[in-house]
Design goal:
The chain is α+β, with helices and mostly antiparallel strands and 195 residues long. The chain folds into two domains: 28 residues, no CATH class; 141 residues, Alpha-Beta Complex (tt1808, chain A), CATH 3.90.1570.10. Helix content is 24%, strand content 34%. It contains four helices and 14 strands. A six-stranded mixed beta sheet has the order 5-8-9-10-11-12. The radius of gyration is 17 Å and the shape is globular.
Length: 195
């Protein structure tokens, strides 16, 4: 970015894209408000829009549930909507992330993460089609895609980092008990958290 102009990069096929560094410069230059809700997915900038009440209530309840269940101090950190950098052109901000407490978020890789949850109200396509392969390729061991419209949670496990897919996938209703692989002693029903 020079003289207030937004720079971008070009892939061999001619497609334009941004990098994490480009986005950071736009924030520094005041072109993007640091409080704005957006993600960078393989160089494409996605506005997340304002968070609706149902989404916020579900996200808050999920974060509070795991924070209380895992306790403090703990060998785990429970976060929400913080930036995760999986490549030079991808910055994701999951609704829930549980990762190792002995590292900082900016040095995190897929191996440091225990669970990621994405809550879907209007973002089903982006979360299921665009972000799911990124989490799988990064080696995130478990991904929950929580669909508020369908009242279902898609539980994805056993990532194949080469093919960017999850080998194990199942769909549960909000009334069903769900347990994360990393925390077998903790069980929850989304129906108890999401009203």
């Amino acid at each position: 970015m020079e003289d207030g102009f937004i720079s971008y990069h070009t892939r061999p096929n001619g497609q334009r894209y941004f990098t994490n560094a480009d986005m950071a410069r736009m924030v520094e230059q005041g072109l993007i408000d640091p409080e704005d809700r957006w993600e960078l997915i393989r160089g494409a900038w996605f506005e997340m829009g304002s968070e609706g009440f149902e989404h916020m209530d579900a996200r808050t309840a999920l974060v509070h549930f795991f924070s209380a269940a895992l306790g403090f101090p703990s060998s785990y950190r429970v976060g929400s909507e913080g930036s995760i950098f999986f490549s030079h052109d991808t910055e994701l901000r999951p609704d829930l992330i549980i990762y190792r407490a002995d590292i900082t978020s900016n040095e995190m890789s897929g191996d440091d993460i225990f669970l990621v949850a994405e809550i879907m109200k209007t973002s089903q396509h982006r979360d299921m089609e665009l972000k799911r392969p990124i989490y799988a390729r990064a080696g995130v061991p478990e991904l929950w895609l929580i669909d508020l419209d369908e009242k279902r949670v898609h539980v994805l496990r056993t990532p194949d980092t080469e093919q960017a897919i999850y080998r194990e996938q199942r769909s549960l209703g909000f009334e069903d008990a769900i347990t994360a692989l990393a925390f077998p002693e903790i069980s929850l029903r989304l129906a108890d958290l999401v009203k």
